[in-house]
Structure formats: C-alpha cells, structure tokens
C-alpha cells in the first residue's frame, strides 16, 4: 500500500496550477484535501505521474456569502463550511448533509469542491449541489467557464471537467425567502457512504403548499439523480401523509440502484423511497403549517 | 545509604486494585515501540506477490522484469527456496483428520487468493511493491470451492488437486441417548443458523523482521506474534538449527492480537531465511489489504440444531450438526472443537449430540478469533432458548433459570470432551447469580412495560439475553523468571508476550505483593525467547491462569532467598527479617535495614576472588512454571436492549448489561478494558462484520470501505457488573476474561432484534443482522 512513483508539485498561484495542468493533463491529479485521492494512490487505484498540491495557493480557501449567493473556494474545508453560522442559517441542507459526510477528522481536511469534483455517486455533496442548482466554476489556461451542477456529473467519478481544468469555486445560488432544505440518509455506520440518501430543497408557503422542490438522491446510480417526477407530484400539494406514501412508491419505481456487498438493489429502492418520504415530512413539519 | 522509612514502613497490597497501566503513557504519547519502529539503516524491505486466483495450477512465474528494477535486491519463488518446502503443521489435530500440505510458499498449486507466490526484497517498500506489479504469473484456473455447502456437495468442486474430497474431519460427540430422547421429548424445535465471524482487525497487522549474525551464527527475529516461543520452535525445525541459535522477540508493543497472531505463517519462515541468505536484515510489514487476504479470520459456520424439552421448558436433548470452514488449509481444529464443547453452556442437558463436518475451501485459512468458536455455539444455544420461551409462552429468563447448573453442583461433568481431549468438567461458577444480577440491573419488568408503550407509538424496542460458559487458562504451562539485578531492582521476565493486555502493570502488582516490595522497584519484560527459554504464548484467555501462579511462585522463592541474604548480612535469624519497600529490615529493630542494592552487591555482583560464606544465596534468580490440571471456566451474561427501525432495517444498540465472572480479579481496570474490547468484537459479529467472497473465491471485502468494522459511534458502553467465583484449579483462583465480552454478545443482540420485531414474527437466523436482512425478514423486499 505505497503509491507508485509520482512527481509532486506545489504551485503557489492559480496560474501556475493551470500551467501545470495544461502541461500534464491526464497525467496529473489535483491534491486538495486528499481524503479520497490519497487512499486511491495507496491502493494504486489511481497512479498519476504528477500530483499538483493546491493547498499552497493563497486565496483559494474563501467562503463568501453575498446577496448573489455563496462562493466556496477550491480549498475551503468541509468543516469550515459546516461550521459557518451563515451556512447553518441560510443553507440548512448544506450543514445537514455535511455532518453526515465521513467523520469530523476527515472533514477537517476534506474540501467541499474536492468532493464534488471527485464525483462519487454515493457521496452526499454531489446530490447537494444538484438539489441546490449550484454552479461549478472551472478554469484552465484557455479561460473560465461555468458548469451547472446538472451538467457536471457524467458517470461515477467522471465529470464534465477537461483534463486541464481546475474547479476554482462552487457557487450556491441565493435562495428564495422561506426556502428550506434537508439531507436524510441511511448508512450502515456513522460516516459511511449512504445506502440511500436524498438532498431536498423546497419552498413551502404559509398555507403549507409546496411552491418549489428539488430533490437529488445519492447511491442509486452512476451519478446523483434528480427526482423530477416525484417533485412534480409534490409541487402544489400540502404533502399529506397519503401523498408522501404515493411519492415514496413513485421513487421506488423510478430509480434503478446497484447491487453490492452492502445492500441489494431492492433494499436501496425501498429505503430511498423511505428517506425521500422522511425528508419531505421533515420539511413539511418545519414549515410550521398544521396538518392535523 | 538507604532511607529506612522506605524499607520498614510496611507493605500495602496492590493486587486487586485498579493500578493504572504503566504502558499507557508511552502508548498515548506516541512513544510505543512497535516492530515497524525498528530502523536499522541497512534494512531491506519485502513485499509479497500473492495469488490473484482462488484455485489454479501455477504454470510459470516470470520475475525478470521485477529483478531488473533498480533497487530490487532479489525476487524469490518456491524454485529458489527448496529447503523451505516443508509442511506448516496444524496446531490442534484429530486422528481422523485428512491433512493438506501447506508450504510457506506456493510450489505449483495456489489454493486461495492471497497465498504467497513470490517474495520481493528491495531497498524500500515502494520499490518492492513496484516490483510485485512486474511479476507475471501464468495461472491455469481450477474449479473453486467458495462455501462450506459447495465443499460438502458430493458432486461439487474439490479444493485441492490431489484430494478425494473436501472433508477435513467428521467428528461426533454424544452424551446420553440423544436420538432416543428426541423421539420421546414432548416438544422438539429445529432451526438452521448461519454465523459469520470476521477477522481480528488488530490495529497493527502482522510483521516480521530478521537479522543474521554470521560471526555468532545467531538469527534474531522480531515478530509481532502472540507466541514467540512457538515461532522459535517452528523456525528451529524449518532451519534445522537449535533453539539457542534463534532468538525470537515480540516487540515491547504489539498492536493487538485477538487470535490471528497466535498462528504461524509462511512470511515468518521466508523473511528470516532471506535475511540470512542475503546477509542483510529484512523487514516485512503486513499492510491492511494483506491483512484482509492473508491473516487468518474465523468466517462461517452453518448449524442445524434441534432441541427437545418438556412442558416446563426443561431441556431434555440437544442435537447440533454443523459445518465449519477451515479454508484452504487446516491451521488447527481448535475453533470447531471449541464450538462442539461450548454448545451446552450453563445448562443441565442429559442428552447431547454434537457433530462436526469441517471442510476445506478455496478461501484464506481460518483460525481462532477472540471467542474462538464459542460465540457461534452460544448463538445457536441461546437462540433456541428464546424459541423455547416463545413456544411455551414463558419468559426467556425463566426458561434459562429452570435449566441452569446450580452453584452447588461443581465440579460439573458435561459428558463431552474439551479441545485438549480432557473431559469437559466445569470447575466452578454461579450461573443463577449471573442471571439474577443482570436481571435486576436491567429491570426487565420495567423494560417490558415500556416496550408495550413504545410499540403503540410505532417504536420497536427489544431485549435479548446471551449466557455463556468459557474454558480458559489452558495448559500446558507458562513461566516466569525473577531476578535481583546488579543495580538493586527486581526484573520479572515473562515468557508470554502481550498485545495490549497490560502485563507490565498487573504482573508488577503480583510480584510486589509476593515479594512484599514496592511496585516501583519491579520491572517487567516479556516476549523474548533470549530471556527465558520456555513459553507457550498468549491465546485462549490462558495467560493469567498460567503466568500469574508462576510469577507468585518464582517471587515467593526469591523472597526466601532475599530474606536469607538479609539475615546473613545483618547477622540475625531469618525469622527476624521482613521485606518491605526497597529492602529488608529487622522485625525487632526496624531501624536496622538492608537494601536490595546492598544485597545484590554482596551476593550477585560479588567481589572477584573473595569467598562468601558457604551456603550463601548467590545468583539471586528464580524461575517457575505453572501447569494447570485443566481449563478454568469463566462465565458471563449479556442482556442487550435495541431499537429497530422497521422501515430501514437499522438496529440501534441502546443498552448492554454485562455480568462476568473471571474468578479473582487482579486489576479491575484491566478486566473492564478486556470486557469492553471483547464486547466491541461481539457487536461487530452481531450487526456489521462479514467477509464476502464471490463464486470464484474472490474476496469482496478487502478494505474498511467495504468491510463494516464498528467504530466508537456504533457502540454503547456496556454496564459491567462483576461476580467473583474463584477457580480451585490455581492458587490465585483466577480465570480468563479476554473473551467474556465477545462470546454472549451476538446471541444477546440477535435475541433482542427478534424480540423487538416479535409483532411481525420476523426471524433472524443469520449473522450479521444487516439492515437489508432485517427488511428481508420483514417481507418488505419481496
């Protein structure tokens, strides 16, 4: 369990990072928090010839909250985002998801952008950025582009990024007044990848009617998956217990999760329905409307 | 000058008190000395080419690319190591056993994924691993046996080319007339149980380093083993050397053992041999992947169990037929033998039929893991006790109470044989006492009221009991040597090697009391065959019951010598001498003292050429061995409370009350620590740990991403209650405790899960109980 030989680069500016990326392309990997990459190197699952450590690049760890939303820099730690009071207040989905990502020790090193760029379909953050409609800002020596989360994930561990591009920032959009979100997951052990998990972001008005809803689930396919049919059914409703059961059933029939040593496809199907129902019930109950 | 107050102030007993571990400061401050901390600059490092197929004929091995890699010192296959192609024999055998030869390295047939094909030695581990990737092995695939069911299928594949079938041994043990009793019993229940156990998962894996001193002709081997003397004996046979030419040292700190490190592996033969051959020291540190594919786990047993009982729930007969997976080779029959004899547990059963089919498969060889076959037997028996209770509508604790061996019925002969071939006779215990203490602590009636209330709210809580008896303190012997050093301290040397048990603390306590000296003048060292010639090792909860009496014996002898020495130096009769603190004093005149330093100067250091009085106690050192007559029986009970979410299958452990009886307690802190750790292993077996193999024998769980080892957040702290029933088999009355937390736990948790879901009638006959299996049992996944 020692990595194959690689050349280690420690650039101090974004331009230097982009230059290295343009020179080495597929041969290079970005090292941010390293919480997925280092184990993969040790297992020799990944053997890049060049490792570009971006932790020495000043200014990449920003976490800015503005009226235009939130900008999370490439080296901002998951724990920093989780502990920011403004995130807890304005983006409860983000905080609720982050506390379920691995363990605090791992979140102290792991980066928000790194987890999204790694694009593990079982991870929490890809579903979160999809449910929030976030934008991924990618830069290369050719220029900068903005990739909507829905176009970013192409397959398990495969994204729309080119080999010479760096995720410099992820932007979370500003949320409408009254918007609330949650992340509900089932994992075998605390900190494990989810057997079933869903990120849900909704606006429920004072009358208890769902005005908008986006849901994305983890662990059910090669990419985080938007649950559009289920969301359509919920929008305009008051999320009655009967409707929640109906949504639960629809989710079960619209997903096609994998089998592995942790759980069968059928288990994931059933429990994804359950976590969706629980997430929606939580958002309904937190909206303060009375359904009794 | 010696301060008389430290000598004549009287001795305060330390044995039985919770003295904090001497080991902890260095372990908690990163100062532990593990094998990989050895760093001779000239060390080479080894990495191993392991079979990637479960069963194959090895047609050829091309090492040319690996040898050419800069930094590689050599690449060795069986063809280069003919003198090592000798059988690694199993530890515990049976006359009816069918053997399979296990070489340290594959000759021409690989029989499991992970088996050693070649060894690479290089300047560092990274280069060695690069070279491993360059070795090309041409495999001709052969049929694969990937389960015990497949192994015992008459038309199924065979795990070894030259073998007629896959049966390792078929043994039946009977007491009374089980078949007749099954026909006449008023009630008979039958079930099939499948129990998975995992590996030891010590934080430090296996590790071996070796250096050959050509001038002295001596081989020094550092081995992260539980049994250095056993390793030395095996090496002496393999290398045709005498035991004095080989020194095996288990480093001062070994990062956990739990059974797998009590076995002897190919790497332990290969690495020292290559160190000698190359004339360079070599070390090999097992990595986590290797630990998954090559260290012995315990894996799976399948039991078909029938129980006959009367209307009152009294047991009449049990009949259990089970399959045990030895893996590709037999490291010993200890695990299934122990399963056989553990089955009746704390209950009086007149008619017993226990039948074992142990078989070979194409998976990594199995061996003892904390509990060593007992959790499986206890699981089977305790699940049936609950089924009896349910069948008759009697409370599960009541069914147990009606069947327990009573406190005045010892010694109790079960009617079977234990793993050492001796009659299974429990020496001592108080099983009704265990049950009563656990029941009153958990308050079962209050719990059951709450259970009914919570069910109405849609919460499903359950309670489950697991009770067990555990043979500990196995022979043949363990030894201790105690010496007055030249600097006036006491050096206690144990043959046994610890892996975190706190030997340096508890044996210093015992020695202090046996010598009547201050614990601070006593140093404890262990695990080095160069310091004490004979020993057996740390396994099977055996060391306390063997080594503690040996320590007391040796120290008592040395105390006599010290008293005699002081009496001669002070010129008073021996009955006027007492030891205390750091020396001896005169009873009638406590100001007159003789320090250990003065004694050692007179009788150990001596003066060259100057005579001492005839009969003087020179060379103050004593060695003692203790040989127990047979096993001392510990016992324990765990009552667990769980909550089950019937929509997701998640099981939450809410409470555990663990009452255990390990006889006399020498240090309650160490005992509690053993029970906590054992409990964690039991929880893993109940709810999390399972080694998956696909049909081609490929292991599917080779990292902690895929293998669910529970962490702190999955556990509760068990509430420990102590009961002390001393064993009559050793002078201290001690019994083992290292496995007491593990053994009853899977049964207790499974019974609790079934109790929680009783309204649904869900059955859990397979361990571990995963969320998926819960939903499956509830019919949700149909």
Question: What overall form of chain A do the CA principal axes indicate?
Answer: globular
Q: Count up the domains of chain B.
A: 3
> Which structural class matches the secondary elements of chain A?
alpha+beta
Question: Biggest sheet of chain A, open or closed, and with what strands and sense?
Answer: 5 strands, antiparallel
Number of DSSP-assigned strands of chain A = 14
Helix content of chain A: 25-40%
Compute the CA-based radius of gyration of chain B: 28 Å
Total helices of chain A: the number is 12
CATH homologous superfamily assignment of the largest domain in chain B: Aldehyde oxidase/xanthine dehydrogenase, molybdopterin binding domain
Described by strand count, sense and barrel closure, the largest sheet of chain B is: 7 strands, mixed
- The CATH architecture assignment of the largest domain in chain A turns out to be 2-Layer Sandwich
Short structural description:
The complex is a heterodimer of chains A (292) and B (782). Chain A has 292 residues and is α+β, with helices and mostly antiparallel strands. Chain A has helices spanning 14-24, 37-42, 78-83, 85-90, 92-98, 104-109, 112-118, 124-132, 149-152, 228-234, 241-254, 265-286; strands at residues 7-9, 28-31, 50-53, 63-66, 69-73, 135-140, 143-148, 153-155, 158-159, 166-172, 179-186, 196-204, 210-218, 225-226.
């Amino acid at each position: 369990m020692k990595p194959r030989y690689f050349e280690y680069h420690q650039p101090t500016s974004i331009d230097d990072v982009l230059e290295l990326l343009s020179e080495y392309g597929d041969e290079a990997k970005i090292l941010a928090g390293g919480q997925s990459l280092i184990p993969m190197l040790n297992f020799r699952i990944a053997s890049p010839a060049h490792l570009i450590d971006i932790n020495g690049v000043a200014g990449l760890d920003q976490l800015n909250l503005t009226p235009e939303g939130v900008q999370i820099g490439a080296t901002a730690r998951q724990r920093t985002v989780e502990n920011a009071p403004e995130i807890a207040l304005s983006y409860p989905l983000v905080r609720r998801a982050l506390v379920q990502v691995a363990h605090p020790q791992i979140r102290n090193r792991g980066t928000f952008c790194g987890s999204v760029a790694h694009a593990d379909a079982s991870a929490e953050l890809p579903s979160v950025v999809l449910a929030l409609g976030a934008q991924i800002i990618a830069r290369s020596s050719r220029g900068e582009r903005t990739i909507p989360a829905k176009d970013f994930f192409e397959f398990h561990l495969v994204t729309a990024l080119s080999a010479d591009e760096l995720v410099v920032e992820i932007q979370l959009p500003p949320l409408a007044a009254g918007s609330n979100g949650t992340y509900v997951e089932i994992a075998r052990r605390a900190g494990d990848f989810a057997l079933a998990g869903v990120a849900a972001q909704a606006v429920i008005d004072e009358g208890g009617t769902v005005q908008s809803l986006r849901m994305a689930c983890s662990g059910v396919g090669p990419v985080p998956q938007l649950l559009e049919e289920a969301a359509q059914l919920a929008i305009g409703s008051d999320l009655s217990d009967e409707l929640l059961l109906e949504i639960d059933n629809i989710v079960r029939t619209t997903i096609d999760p994998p089998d592995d040593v942790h759980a069968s496809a059928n288990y994931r199907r059933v429990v994804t329905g359950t976590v969706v129902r629980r997430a929606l019930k939580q958002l309904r109950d937190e909206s303060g409307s009375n359904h009794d | 000058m010696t301060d008389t107050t430290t000598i004549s102030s009287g001795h305060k007993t330390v044995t039985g008190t919770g003295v904090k571990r001497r080991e902890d400061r260095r372990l908690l401050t990163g100062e532990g000395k593990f094998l990989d901390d050895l760093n001779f600059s000239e060390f080479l490092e080894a990495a191993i080419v392991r079979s990637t197929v479960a069963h194959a004929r090895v047609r050829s091995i091309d090492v040319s690319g690996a040898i050419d890699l800069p930094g590689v010192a050599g690449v060795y296959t069986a063809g280069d190591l003919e003198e090592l192609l000798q059988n690694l024999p199993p530890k515990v055998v049976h006359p009816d056993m069918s053997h399979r030869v296990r070489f340290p390295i594959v000759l021409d047939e690989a029989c499991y994924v992970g088996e050693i094909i070649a060894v690479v030695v290089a300047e560092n581990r990274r280069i060695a691993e690069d070279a491993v990737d360059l070795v090309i092995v041409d495999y001709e695939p052969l049929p694969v046996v990937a389960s015990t069911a497949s192994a015992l299928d008459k038309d199924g594949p065979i795990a070894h080319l030259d073998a007629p079938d896959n049966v390792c041994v078929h043994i039946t043990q009977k007491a009374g007339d089980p078949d007749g009793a099954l026909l006449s019993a008023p009630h008979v229940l039958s079930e099939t149980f499948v129990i998975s156990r995992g590996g030891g998962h010590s934080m430090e894996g296996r590790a071996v380093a070796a250096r050959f001193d050509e001038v002295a002709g001596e081989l020094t081997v550092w081995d992260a083993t539980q049994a250095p003397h056993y390793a030395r004996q095996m090496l002496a046979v393999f290398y045709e050397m005498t035991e004095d030419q080989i020194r095996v040292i288990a480093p001062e700190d070994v990062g956990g053992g739990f059974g797998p490190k009590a076995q002897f592996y190919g790497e332990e033969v290969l690495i020292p041999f290559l160190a000698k051959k190359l004339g360079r020291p070599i070390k090999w540190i097992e990595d986590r992947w290797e630990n998954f594919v090559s260290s012995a786990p315990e894996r799976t047993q399948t039991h078909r169990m029938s129980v006959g009982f009367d209307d009152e729930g009294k047991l009449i007969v049990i009949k259990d037929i089970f399959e045990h997976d030895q893996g590709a080779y037999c490291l010993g029959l200890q695990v299934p033998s122990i399963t056989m004899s553990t089955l009746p547990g704390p209950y009086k059963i007149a008619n017993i039929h226990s039948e074992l089919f142990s078989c070979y498969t194409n998976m990594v060889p199995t061996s003892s893991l904390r509990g060593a076959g007992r959790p499986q037997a206890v699981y089977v028996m305790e699940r049936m006790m609950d089924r009896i209770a349910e069948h008759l509508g009697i409370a599960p604790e009541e069914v147990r109470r009606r069947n327990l061996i009573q406190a005045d019925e010892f010694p109790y002969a079960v009617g079977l044989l234990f793993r050492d071939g001796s009659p299974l006779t429990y020496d001592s215990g108080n099983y009704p006492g265990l049950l009563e203490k656990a029941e009153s602590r958990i308050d079962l009636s209050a719990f059951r009221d709450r259970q009914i209330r919570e069910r109405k709210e849609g919460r499903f809580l359950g309670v489950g009991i697991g009770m067990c008896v555990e043979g500990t303190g196995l022979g043949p012997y363990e030894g201790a040597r105690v010496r007055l050093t030249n600097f006036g301290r006491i050096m206690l040397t144990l043959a046994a090697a610890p892996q975190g048990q706190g030997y340096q603390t508890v044996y210093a306590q015992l020695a202090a009391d046996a010598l009547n000296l201050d614990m601070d003048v006593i140093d404890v060292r262990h695990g080095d065959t160069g310091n004490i010639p004979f020993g057996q090792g740390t396994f099977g909860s055996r060391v306390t019951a063997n080594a503690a009496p040996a320590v007391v014996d040796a120290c008592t002898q040395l105390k006599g010598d010290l008293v005699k020495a002081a009496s001669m130096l002070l010129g008073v009769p021996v009955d006027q001498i007492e030891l205390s603190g750091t020396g001896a004093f005169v009873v009638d005149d406590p100001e007159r003292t003789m320090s250990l330093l003065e004694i050692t100067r007179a009788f150990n250091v001596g003066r060259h050429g100057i005579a001492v009085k005839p009969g003087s106690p020179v060379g103050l050192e004593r060695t003692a061995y203790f040989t127990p007559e047979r096993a001392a029986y510990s016992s324990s009970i765990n009552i667990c409370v769980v909550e089950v979410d019937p929509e997701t299958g998640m099981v939450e452990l809410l409470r555990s009350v663990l009452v255990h009886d390990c006889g006399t307690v020498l240090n309650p802190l160490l005992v509690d620590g053993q029970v906590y750790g054992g409990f964690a292993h039991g929880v893993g077996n109940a709810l999390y740990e399972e080694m998956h193999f696909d049909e081609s024998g490929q292991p599917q769980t080779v990292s902690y991403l895929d293998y669910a080892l529970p962490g702190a957040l999955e556990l509760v702290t068990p509430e420990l209650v102590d009961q002390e029933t001393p064993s009559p088999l050793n002078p201290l009355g001690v019994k083992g405790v290292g496995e007491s937390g593990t053994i009853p736990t899977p049964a207790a948790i499974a019974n609790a899960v079934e109790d929680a879901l009783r309204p649904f009638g869900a059955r859990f006959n397979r361990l571990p109980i995963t969320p998926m299996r819960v939903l499956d049992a509830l019919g949700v996944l149909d």
